[in-house]
Write a structure and sequence with these properties.
Penicillin-binding protein 2a (Domain 2), Beta-lactamase, alpha+beta, single chain, seven-stranded mixed beta sheet, 35% helix
């Protein structure tokens, strides 16, 4: 018996739908009567699929209808309004950067100033600078050899993110008149190119006080983030500022020097092209910073320091015992009456003009040698602390006298050695000075006397505390000075607290946090972990010179606005050191003896100075850095016309120069020779 399959089915699958008239009628009947069954369950899937397709078809047709209606509305009904908007322009406010204020010496000589120069600029026809170079390659290719640059260099200038939209990109600064004339005569060949006046930073004194003055450069992202805070909004800082103080006084007085930008209201087409300038508000130039620094004195100090270092290296300094490395040195001159910094020199230096408009890679490599070599970018007067040696005895003598640990009449027998436990210390040159009081100990720099003071101060710490350290801090040693310069080292004075701090910061270098009697002995004559800068030492001796008032050292004397308004910077008292008249006189005689008496440690460097008219008193210092290198030489002094309060305090440090008497004192003598003959210029505020 043959088994016949039902019609329309093959192996259990539904037959293909029929699309004739009869098949369509049957499909419609099934849609109208979805609950009807005509056979096996598989027969019900066909009608449901058809229903879904019909719904989708209706939805798609509806969407297309809506889209066509919307397109017709935009293109036909809204066409006039769209055409009007396309022809409209917008206005954009473009900042105009102000001329930067100058930095002048007290006598009016400019150390830093903005000078007007011709600059070739290339306008960008788009608000997106990434597309500028592709606008007219022929123009850039013709312009490049004319201004002495490559096409790639001009591309980089135009695309720089340091330049805001609609601001012409400077591609060449300081171009000669012949180039300016050629561009004017062939303007049609250089669309978008123009020649304008711009301000460029210049340093007329070149390397003089270079680290103090500092330099400017393009603003960095962290600087922009810091100066774009709301409180600085009125100064108009943007990511497109091209001059921003990077170091020294340029950085310290950035806000005063910067000025306030103007605004140029530019009309811009919808395509981003500049149409024209509607209005402009001129910028306000920055203030002039007038310094206490005297240009003539600064030049003399710099020259004296450099020539003496050269002589030390050549071995021609009397008593030096032959050539010494003397890789770097620094000197500071302060007015003890008010804290005004009259000179600050650091050797080696550099020409600040190297940074204008941007320093070359070759020049930067020369300014950043290996760490073992002298670093021109470091201001050794304020940034690099070293053991001060015997110039620190100022603090030790004051502390033990004022606390009554000794009196001016106390005698110590300097046998040439000092024993503490199993350690035997000697005078620096192996001398034996015999019985000395504090005056003689200062004049002849008796280490044994001050070793003893360090031990006695330690033994009396229950009564007086760490008295030498407290007195040193009052003198400004090891504490922030308050000077108006960035990146200044506060120095440090050895103490139990310092040892704990050093151990916590670097346990490998300082495995023990303990502070022993021997450490206090070393500290008493300026060794151990005590590290000071020439600025700190000069200010300490200035404090003693004026009787005990410590002022904050001040580089700037006043800010002068473009309209001539003067804002004086008043002296700031930081601390006081109490010194009784008897104790003061005992120490003063010791400092005078160091330079005026034949047994004084610096006597040889001061022979012939006119002490009948000028008071000069000082102290040598010789500090051991390592036992394999020459000591660092120090000399600190103060003085001025007799019968008047001391006008000048000086500190000189020369690294690896030997004894202070030969390595540093001659520089101080040369400085006082200049001061004796010339003084300093009167403060000129304009």
């Amino acid at each position: 018996m043959r088994l016949r399959l039902p019609r329309g089915r093959l192996r259990g699958r539904p037959s293909p739908p029929r699309f004739g008239t009869r098949g369509s009628w049957r499909l419609l009947r099934r849609i109208k009567a979805p609950g009807r069954t005509t056979g096996a369950p598989a027969d019900r899937r066909g009608p449901r699929l058809g229903l879904r397709l019909s719904v989708v078809t209706v939805v798609v047709v509806g969407l297309f209808a809506v889209m066509l209606l919307r397109l017709w509305s935009i293109q036909v009904i809204g066409a006039p309004a769209a055409r009007s908007r396309a022809l409209q322009t917008v206005t954009v406010d473009v900042p105009v950067q102000p001329p930067r204020g100058s930095i002048d010496a007290r006598g009016g000589q400019p150390f830093a100033e903005d000078v007007a120069e011709e600059v070739v600029t290339l306008s960008c026809p788009s608000s997106d600078r990434q597309f500028c170079p592709s606008q007219d390659r022929a123009v850039i290719e013709r312009l490049a050899p004319l201004v002495g640059k490559s096409v790639a260099e001009i591309d980089a200038e135009v695309q720089s993110n340091q330049i805001g939209p609609f601001v012409p990109a400077p591609v060449a600064v300081g171009v000669p008149y012949s180039t300016v004339a050629y561009l004017a005569e062939h303007a049609s060949e250089f669309p978008g190119v123009s020649v304008e006046k711009t301000y460029v930073r210049a340093y007329p004194q070149h390397a003089l006080a270079s680290q103090v003055i500092g330099y400017v450069g393009s603003i960095t992202a962290p600087e922009y983030a810091r100066f774009s805070a709301p409180r600085y909004a009125s100064y108009g800082y943007t990511e497109q500022d091209t001059q921003f103080g990077q170091s020294g006084l340029e950085q310290q007085y950035e806000l005063a020097l910067h000025g306030k930008p103007g605004v140029s209201r530019v009309e811009v087409s919808p395509t981003g092209a500049e149409v024209g300038t509607l209005s402009s508000t001129p910028p306000t130039p920055g203030d002039t910073v007038v310094l206490n620094l005297d240009a003539g004195l600064e030049r003399a100090v710099t020259s004296d320091l450099a020539s003496h270092i050269a002589a030390l290296r050549a071995g021609t300094v009397p008593g030096s015992g032959g050539p010494v490395p003397a890789p770097w040195g620094a000197a500071v001159v302060i007015d003890p009456r008010n804290g005004h910094v009259l000179a600050m020199a650091s050797y080696p230096g550099y020409d600040d003009n190297l940074w204008v408009p941007a320093i070359s890679e070759k020049a930067y490599r020369e300014l950043t040698p290996p760490p073992s070599d002298p670093q021109p970018l470091i201001d050794y007067a304020v940034e690099d602390g070293n053991p001060p040696g015997s110039v620190f005895k100022l603090a030790t003598a004051t502390a033990v006298l004022q606390d009554g640990i000794i009196t001016p009449q106390t005698i110590i027998d300097d046998t040439g050695t000092f024993t503490l436990g199993t350690t035997v210390l000697h005078d620096a040159a192996g001398e034996v000075l015999g019985p000395v009081d504090v005056t003689q100990a200062i004049t002849e720099s008796s280490d044994v006397f001050f070793y003893t003071m360090g031990e006695w101060a330690w033994n009396d710490r229950a009564r007086f505390g760490m008295t030498i350290q407290k007195t040193a801090a009052a003198y400004g040693l090891g504490v922030p000075s308050g000077i108006d310069l960035p990146n200044v080292s506060p120095g440090q004075v050895d103490s139990p607290q310092l040892r704990e701090l050093l151990h916590a910061e670097d346990p490998q270098a300082y495995p023990s946090a303990a502070y022993y009697p021997g450490d206090n002995v070393e500290m008493a004559f300026g060794q151990g972990e005590t590290l000071l800068t020439p600025l700190e030492v000069a200010n300490a001796y200035a404090t003693f010179a004026n009787g005990g008032t410590r002022y904050a050292p001040e580089m700037a004397a006043a800010l002068v606005s473009p309209e001539g308004r003067v804002q004086r910077i008043k002296p700031r008292v930081m601390d006081h050191v109490a010194i009784s008249p008897a104790n003061y006189q005992a120490m003063l005689q010791g400092f005078e003896g160091a330079v005026q008496q034949p047994n004084g440690t610096a006597y040889g460097s001061w022979v012939g100075f006119n002490f009948s008219k000028w008071l000069v008193a000082g102290k040598t210092g010789t500090a051991t850095i390592t036992h394999t290198s020459q000591p660092t030489a120090w000399f600190a002094c103060f003085g001025g016309p007799k019968g008047q309060p001391p006008r000048y305090a000086v500190a000189v440090e020369v690294n690896q120069a030997g004894y202070g008497a030969n390595g540093a004192a001659p520089v101080a003598r040369a400085i006082f020779n200049y001061l004796y003959s010339h003084g300093v210029a009167p403060l000129r505020l304009h």
